[in-house]
Here is the input.
Amino acid sequence: MQKLVLTEEQQMLKDAARGLFSEQAPVSQLRKLRDEKDPMGYVPEFWNQAVELGLAGTLIPESHGGSEFGHVGMGQVMEEGGRTLAASPLFASGVLGACALMLAGNDSQKDILKGIADGSHLVALAIDEAGRHQPLRVATKAEAQGDSFVLNGSKTFVVDGHIANTLIVSARTSGGERDESGITLFLVDPKAEGVSVERTIFPDGRNYAKVTLENVAVGADAVLGDKDQAAGPLQRLLDIGNAHLAAELLGLSSEAFDRTVAYMKERKQFGVYISSFQALQHRAAHMWSELEQLKSMVLKAFMALDANDDQASMLASAAKAKASQVAELVTNEGVQLHGGMGMTDEFDIGLFMKRARPAQLLLGDFRYHADRVASLKGF
Amino acid sequence: MTDLETFRQETRAWLEENCPQSMRSPFKSDKDACWGGRKFQFQSEDQRLWLERMAEKGWTAPDWPTEYGGGGLSRDEHKVLLEEMARIQARPPLNSFGIWMIGPAILKFGSEALKQQHLPPIVRGEIRWCQGYSEPGAGSDLAGLQTKAEDKGDHFIVNGQKIWTSYADKADWMFALVRTNPDVKKQEGISLVLFDMETPGVSTRPIKLISGESPFCETFLDNVRVEKDQVVGEVDKGWTIAKYLLTHERSMIGNMGSTAAGQKTLSDLAVDAIGLEDGKLADSMLRTEVASWVIDSIGYELTAERARDEAKSGQGVGNVSAMLKYAGTELNKRRYELLVAAYGSEGLLWEGDERPAGALPQQWLRTKGNSIEGGTTEVQLNIIAKNILGLG
Here is the structure.
């Protein structure tokens, strides 16, 4: 069995990513983007540096301009990005967009991968239609008209929707609103007639959008994968997305925890460092224990995805469920243990909580994934 | 063929020839284990034969040096032996605190004479050991122990009381922590000594727990003579060895978070008890709690696996045994609370042969001790906070 440790190459990628994020995209960068209400929501110069390091193409085959480093490798990048709350198209394009095309795309659709790897082409996945994640509940309709389709409906919580060059939209080509069969994925140009994309603001200051489709006409070549049969590849894509979100949550939770422990060692009350209080020590020790266990689950999920293991879905859901719980615990405790300073906007610790919640909810929170683990385990 | 493959072939053939058929199935209950020792009654001739044959090869202690009766196997060979035993579901030939605990300590810290005297009988299962650590006044504060050893020239006279001594009433020898110097910092006046349980002045009394009968005993030491050559390591330097053994014990108890091979999983048992509706456990609130437990147990299992892999690769914190002990025992307690909930009142039936959940109420209560024995949950959290996080 494969050992639950990083290879030397994976460790090198992790170190390189950590260097890049900490130097070129520290937490202060996200703060600035938020404060200045930056219209792009990311810093193109930083994105270029990430692309130069090959991060956007980590998952993409060499034949399409990537480095084919696998999910374990990309996971290290996501984790390190989580530590600095780095805002970039890496997740929407480099993970979800790239994998959607790799899982379901035909040869000419896969040409987009080159643009993803070189950072010039951004992709966004538009699947959710309500506040809580229900990927198979699709009311957006795609009606066939000859060889083409006409799309009507709306999508929400679309990561990087307003900066994307291509939207991947799930729509119903047959069946009822909750049927597993009858869902089709379409490649949609956000500039096409009838498409409106409106940026929505969330506590994390990151990019989300609402996408409305009104009689949007697309050709047969816009169908990604098999008509009516998107549920299978979509589920796989969501497993991948959830494992990478778990990695980001691991990174942000680890950083929030490190900062909290450091604060405990410098803050004095009653004439002593608050790190000397056992009530606080035990809470910190519990968090550390939880983080170590999350780390194991995230690594195992990536290894299972890379190996096409039949437990990959269960492990990805388990990792995202645990990541959501741990992130909630650590960011809540982080603010609490920082005391009044934790409530101030000036201190960074609150930013970790504000990023954690949307990332937890995105593609399903603890409850969604605990339910899925139970179902996959047969109970 | 590599040496290791040759070893595998030979081991397989030897086991095939020497492991009695009745020893090729998992234990049905704790009573099936072979503990050896002067007072032990073998359950069957096969059990005796299996111990004798394995001990002859030194495979009751596969990685100990052959000069002390051990198997002298390398780490890889040891692994092969365990794999080949698992292949035919061979039972462990011997359960032994001698092999698990005091043997490794004697090997690491003991004199040559102590090794010659004690290790071979441990390997052969002739002497059964018990551990005298805790005292009525020294639980979490183990180093505060008061059992006194007075220097009488060539021997000590020991007075005091030990508690939570597992199987003291069945053991032949005890390894015990005693205070040899009351005038120094408490950790610096402790020695690890060995004595025969038949020495005059040693008496034991079993302890009944909230769960009923238990292997635990109180042990009373009343003017017990202990020879000076039975000190492991140096006099007054026993605390280092004690910590070494506690780390060892922690990792063993921590394993409780795992569902043992052949044991039904919590979710299977919950389905047995409650049933499915539309493919889902028929009680939705309990289903959520079981799912949450399953997720946490995956995290625990994978972390134990990662810790082993990191140790092999020379990476990692190394000091994770406290975390695994903490997480594993708390998980086991939750598991039993959920089982009791799943079976409802029928699961709490204390007596009777037709109980649907068997001895569940007794097992449930026994798990409450998991987070107390071998260092409480609170002590594990102290260790993590101080040694790993540097909080103080």
